[in-house]
Write a structure and sequence with these properties.
Elements: H1 6-30, H2 39-58, H3 76-96, H4 101-121, H5 133-150, H6 160-181, H7 186-196, H8 199-214, H9 222-242
Organism: Salmonella arizonae (strain ATCC BAA-731 / CDC346-86 / RSK2980)
Transmembrane segments: 6-27, 39-61, 81-97, 104-124, 130-154, 166-183, 195-213, 225-249
Protein name: Hydrogenase
């Protein structure tokens, strides 16, 4: 399982879920539904904390995690760590401010910036199939889907239409991407075949499809729906990190 970069999978999925929760909470706060309640922002912060633990475990020397910030001028990874830190700080201040509207907006802005930076960090040039807008698109879809999926677990009114739309978009993008890559260069085609042959890829689509069916019942089974979506997104992220082919494997051959 080493090639699937489990710490990065947990970090990206959980951090993007946290951003999604922050965006939903901000929207609900602006509508006057949740202002003055700290619990929601505490939950958002705890999810981000779990993501941060996974990120630290990915480092070769976790005790020197602060070194990841020393190359902000050139490294997207350093910018990602800074973005996560700023987002976490904003969520913490919003918690202390009891979900004040201004702080909620600031937290959401930092969250969006974090995901945008992640979209650049993991769109490695050597991974030609994902070295484009696909990575950022996939990450923001995760924000959309997991943010909506977590809403009922916070005892908030579920956003069923938005969730169902997000699931459809997620499935469509995951199916379309390999089909597009089949018409690309050698490494792109290798990535397409790798994804399509992956049991994790098929399982992720099945979980997402089952979640879409389950979502027809609205908020009757929020926990089941959340588990299906989390597993589906998690498996698709395993494929993203583990089955995307690098140009390194094709050195010396035609592209």
């Amino acid at each position: 399982m080493e090639k699937y970069e489990l710490p990065l999978v947990f970090f990206t999925v959980l951090s993007q879920m946290s951003v999604g929760m922050a965006l939903v909470l901000t929207w609900r706060t602006l509508r006057g539904e949740v202002e003055g309640l700290r619990f929601y922002w505490l939950a958002t912060g705890l999810v981000l904390a779990l993501a941060s633990i996974a990120a630290i475990l990915h480092l070769a020397h976790p005790d020197r995690a602060y070194n990841a910030l020393i190359n902000l001028q050139h490294a997207w990874l350093s910018r990602e760590i800074l973005g996560a830190t700023l987002f976490g700080a904003a969520v913490g201040v919003t918690f202390l401010a009891k979900g004040h509207k201004a702080m909620a907006i600031i937290a959401s802005v930092f969250g969006v910036i974090l995901v945008a930076v992640q979209g650049m960090t993991y769109a490695a040039p050597a991974m030609v199939a994902i070295a484009n807008g696909f990575t950022m698109l996939l990450f923001f879809i995760t924000v959309w889907v997991m943010g909506c999926a977590a809403t009922p677990l916070l005892k908030l009114r579920p956003a069923v239409p938005a969730l169902r739309q997000g699931i459809v978009v997620c499935i469509a993008v995951l199916i379309a991407a390999p089909l597009v890559w089949l018409s690309g260069g050698t490494v792109m085609q290798m990535t397409a075949h790798s994804w399509l042959a992956s049991p994790f890829y098929l399982a992720s689509l099945i979980c997402l499809a089952l979640a879409f069916v389950a979502s027809r019942h609205g908020d009757s089974r929020p926990k089941v729906l959340f588990v299906l979506l989390f597993v589906g997104v998690f498996l698709s992220r395993l494929v993203f990190f583990g089955d995307t082919v690098s140009t390194i494997v094709n050195i010396g051959h035609l592209y």
